[in-house]
Amino acid sequence: MDIHVTPLDFGKAAVTVLGLSKTFGKVTVLENINFHVDEDEIVVLLGASGSGKTTILRIISGLEHPDSGKIILHNRDVTDLPARERGTGVIFQSYALFPKMNVAQNIAYGLKIRHSRRKEIRATIDRLLELVHLEEHRKKYPSQLSGGQQQRVAIARALAYNPEVLLFDEPFGALDAQIRARLRREIRALLKQIKVPSIFITHDQEEALELGDRVAVLNSGRLEQIGTPFEVYSKPETEFVATFLGAANILDGFVDGRRFESGEVVLDTEQECATLKREAAKLVVRPEDLFLRKPENLTQKYQKLADGVIDEVSFVGAFERVIVKMELPDQPAFVVTRPKTETAAFPLRAGQKVTAGVVRFRILKNPKIQKLGQTKSSATG
Amino acid sequence: MATNPSTMRHVRGFDVVRPLSITVMIAVMLPLVLLPLASIFIFGTSKGLASFWAALNAPEAIFALKLSIVTSFWATVFNVIFGLFAAYVLSKYSFWGRNAVIVTISLPTAIPTAVAGFALLLLWGPYGLLGRLLDPKGIHLMFTAYAIILANIFVTFPLAFGVIKPVFDTMSRSLEEASATMGASRWQTFWHVTLPSLRGAIVSGALLTFARAVGEFGSTILVSGNLASRTQTAPLYIFAKFNEGQVEAANAIAIVLALFSFVIFSILFFARDWLDVD
Q: In chain A, whose CA is at the least distance from the CA of B196?
């Protein structure tokens, strides 16, 4: 890359998305999206359908044009370049393999378009077929391959011309649950081996946490939070992130001087957001961070949340799920999951009185305004 | 819930309905379709193969067959290329009046062929809307081979389009998008990705158009002038010879045309899988 013609400097980022906005008619699809993808990094865009994640991918690849904002690929502003001049590798949801070309021809396509030498094309095909373990399928047509094999061809086809970034559009959507779990591990291992920056989009939170070096959570066209899987799961910054990534119990209340208060509930917190000023806040507790004990029998290591009555106990395989009616205003039903060691030591049945304690929890101060106040105040509510 | 009656019914032993329904079907087809076709062959060869060959080798007959093939060929070339283009434009872009255009393209199938020929005369004839401008310049389209091509183009206009358009519509847009992200220009995408997927539709569209054009009579007789060895196509030759009472001459060409249609529709029927093969 010639640095002299590009005054931009976005460090080592492979992809930089700057202030991206897009509306279709009167519908705002994207609102001021900012993030970057480092070299060798996998970023997953996670969101429900209609959250705008596909549009981001299409704008990066050049298949869609943003209303405002910029796309920088390796220090090159490509915002106004057509798709074919960007050099991105898109793996479409349905793979979009060319049906009248065999595997080798599909892989060769990008190089043929670039008028590469025949010898070079053949060497690339050989190398990539070996990489994705499809050597013996070289002459087969896409319709003769399984879904997983087609996907590997799609990846090889995109890798052939050394793309700036690989963009995966819900790549496991068409596969059944067992295969997708295996494939995503395979693909992550492959991407880590070849070190190509990648962006995945998915609506599956488990997939996002397992695949991504970082996960960006999208909600109706806004980027709610971006961080490592651990950060977005353990330190959600908005209620949406907390509830979209895994289950969460939510309690409204206040923060005041390093404490969270809600009626009779008082929890000490070290979290930086708890100031001396009294402010509205929400408590977020993961089901696995709640512990149930006999009434008033909590040990020192837990802070007491509240007393409650067991409403329902159900066995869901690896753990037990318990619904507890808390003795709090409105009697919220909290979900608690308990590992086998717990269920054996302290069996529970419906109607039983318990005390719920917490070890880890998260305080969201002014839940939405905190993150999004600068973009749109009307978004609260 | 609607249940398919044929899967529900259990028949023990011999099922009478099966042979009965097949027999009825063939019995209806026999006088209406099969016997007329058979009679062409029976009469055509009744005086021996020698006289059949002689009738076929008459210079006028050979000319008529050649003229039919040549004019149909050019009409097919034009309609396939234009049909492809129109299908591309109409399934890719949406614009005001798009549906009106689709209906208009399909219209020639519904118009009687004599009306089509008459319409062409009113446009291109010596006193026609455009013909009147061309006439002083010495350009006469009507009553020439060009008139036959124009008539063939008109009556077979929607055929290739009608076969190609649905394939375009169902073709996944992501194939073209994938090609673009891989660096291909529009033309490269069309040539390497879109066109190969249309191969089957193009071949069957061309065969249909050609078969229909070779058999065209109503419009051709109006615009060609029906001049033997000049503007007389094979169907016109059959009509002329029959009028002159030369039934064997008419019959020989009729056999050729019937066989020709049979071959084309056999190809369309049996080659469908081959044409769509990946």
A: A100
